[in-house]
Design goal:
By secondary structure, the chain is of the alpha/beta class. The protein is 39% helix and 11% strand. The strands form 2 sheets. An 8-stranded parallel sheet has the order 9-6-3-2-1-12-11-10. The chain has a 4-stranded antiparallel sheet with strand order 5-4-7-8, with no helix packed on it. Helix 1 (24-36) links the parallel strand 1 (3-7) and strand 2. The protein is globular and about 70 Å long.
Length: 489
């Protein structure tokens, strides 16, 4: 079945709360996709955002992002008291600081007003998911002591029942622990309702799982033996990518690397739990930085840049064999962008996972480029672009005349052809079983709407937001027409 999808993160949806939410804004997107004949909604990770508001630097790989909780729904259910104000003026950028302040105040009011009636339900929810209480404890300690690296060394020891000092500390914070479990209960409740709504509309939810976790995350606190950290849980070696054409110093991500041998010795249990959890939220999963399962770039934690790193081979076949045994029903897409060595290609062949083809990467040369239109295969997901690169219009405006002429030749463009429409049609007409177009390219927006610049923090990263009216009747009819024309749904 040939499918089409739209890439738009939940935070980017229009709505009255300063950020996209799991309530009416998400349901309206599902309705629009259903009516447009689009069967797949792809989004970025939905965990709590970390440093720089990045969804790829979350304090937990299992938890949900409180900023996505729909306050209007809570008010309608009587969980949030009537009269609590949370509406914000429409804006093309998310003001994360303002949204976080408002959401935290409103969720606290919801907790104060409703925990007495919901406490037993919240506790049942937390008891049913092994990650909830540890995450709630972690967040309570962060509130009380600041970022993880500033905690007293004793508090970095987990579990609490093996550490008297941590146990005493958490006893004094038990109300805050319950609050954070309550917030995750609300997120799970709204997510479950949204997934049911999407299934009823025959829309598949396509999620993203970062390969690495943030330094000082709850995941490291709970499972230090699986990460390359010292006794005080400070990273010893970290992830990144080597110097290349785009960055002479490479990229120093700072995420602690795994101890893959130890994971193997324990049956990859932490990773299996992680994949099982995201499989309960999404119908399709993109594993970010798939190349790290074949070989990963290892950098000393005290390095100032990525130049001193080295490539280390990984046993990806053993890992994915275990995944196939334990979770045979997962639908996985491999984000195989970057330095695709022979090991990466062999692992991709072994798993038979579809890889990614990104058209804006494939128009600067000839068919030797793996992203050239001629190299898009059926077992792949084709994109005009992703959240990590220019929008189509931004890319087209940025490249020089020679590159533009080359792209026009490859695409068979005629005078007066629109670059966004041309690129969309080329992806939709490709053999790929799934063609995904970012909302920015459907709207033909320039780089002001770009979602992220890898290797940078702050600025406009992650802040793009749709405006009311973007999901217009004209766009709907255009999408219907193109989907029908290329036999996609």
């Amino acid at each position: 079945m040939r499918q089409s999808g739209m890439l738009v993160h939940l935070t980017s949806l229009a709505g009255p709360e300063g950020i996209g939410t799991l309530g009416a804004p998400a349901r309206e997107m599902i309705d629009f996709l259903h009516d447009a004949g689009v069967g797949v909604w792809q989004m970025l990770p939905v965990g709590p955002t970390g440093y720089g508001a990045s969804p790829y630097q979350s304090p937990s790989t299992f938890a949900g992002n409180p900023l996505l909780i729909d306050l209007k729904s809570l008010r309608e259910e009587g969980i949030l008291p009537a009269g609590v104000a949370f509406e914000a003026e429409p804006a093309s950028k998310v003001d994360f600081d303002a949204v976080e302040k408002t959401k935290a105040a409103c969720l606290q009011q919801a907790f104060d007003a409703s925990i007495a009636s919901l406490k037993s339900e919240v506790e049942r929810f937390a008891d049913s998911k092994p990650w909830v209480w540890p995450y709630a404890q972690y967040q309570a300690l962060v509130e009380d002591h600041g970022p993880f690296h500033t905690w007293p060394v004793a508090l970095r020891r987990y579990p609490a029942d093996h550490n008297a000092e941590t146990a005493r500390e958490l006893e004094t914070l038990k109300d805050r622990v319950l609050y954070h479990a309550f917030v995750q209960y609300l997120f799970d409740r709204q997510w479950t309702a949204l997934r049911t709504y999407a299934a009823d509309k025959k829309i598949s939810l396509f999620g993203d799982i970062p390969i690495y976790v943030a330094p000082g995350s709850c995941d490291v606190w709970q499972n230090p033996l699986y990460f390359q950290v010292d006794r005080d849980l400070n990273p010893q070696r970290v992830a990144g990518v080597p110097p290349d054409y785009f960055s002479e110093d490479g990229q120093l991500w700072g995420n602690p690397l795994y101890r893959w041998l130890r994971l193997w010795m324990h049956g990859y249990d932490w990773w299996i739990d992680r994949l099982r959890g995201i499989g309960e939220r999404f119908d399709i999963i993109r594993i970010d930085h798939f190349i790290g399962f074949a070989n990963y770039y290892s950098i000393p934690a005290d390095a100032k840049n990525a130049r001193s790193g080295k490539w280390v081979k990984n046993s990806g076949r053993l890992f994915f064999r275990k995944v196939r045994q334990q979770l045979p029903d997962l639908t996985i897409i491999a984000e195989d962008l970057g330095v695709t060595s022979g090991r990466v290609k062999k692992l991709l062949t072994y798993t038979s996972f579809p890889g990614m083809k990104v058209l804006v990467f494939g128009l600067d040369s000839d068919e030797s480029n793996p992203h050239h239109p001629a190299n898009i295969t059926e077992n792949s997901v084709a994109y005009t672009g992703t959240h990590d690169n220019d929008t189509v219009l931004g890319w087209y405006n940025r490249i020089d005349r020679k590159e533009r002429q080359n792209a026009q030749t490859i695409l068979g463009m005629k005078p007066g052809d629109d670059i966004c429409d041309t690129m969309i049609r080329r992806v939709m007409s490709s053999p790929a079983f799934l063609a995904v177009i970012p909302i920015q390219d459907w709207l033909c927006l320039d780089n002001e709407a770009r979602m992220n610049y890898p290797g940078t923090v702050g600025g406009n990263n992650w802040r793009y937001r749709m405006m009311p009216g973007d999901l217009s009747d004209a766009l709907l009819k255009r999408m219907q027409r193109i989907n029908h024309e290329y036999g996609r749904n």
